[in-house]
């Protein structure tokens, strides 16, 4: 996915009801090529923190920024990753690393 223009087609459920677009302005929905999706949190207007396994494939290859789109039509400029990062499963479905994404509008 190079660019995806979506308006709330993947709603987030919160306490049994769906959140409205903009209701949680510091939470972002990341759409990754191959149909995956993850959430992230804004640290500041240009930085997003997300789980590392959201931006790395099973062979520990980092996705390129063009593979990730934010529902708000913003594109990722850079994925910051520790050079020694290796995707490692701690328990079933439990990973312990984070990634920082920088947005291209800053």
Automatic annotation (TrEMBL):
Among the GO molecular function terms of this UniProt record, one is: serine-type endopeptidase activity
So which residues are the signal peptide here?
none
Coiled-coil features, chain-numbered ranges? none
Which top-level group of life is the source organism from? Eukaryota
| Residue ranges constituting the Peptidase S1 domain according to the UniProt record | 16-61
* Record-level GO BP terms: proteolysis
InterPro entries per record: Peptidase_S1_PA, Peptidase_S1_PA_chymotrypsin, Trypsin_dom, TRYPSIN_HIS
Identification of the protein by name: Peptidase S1 domain-containing protein
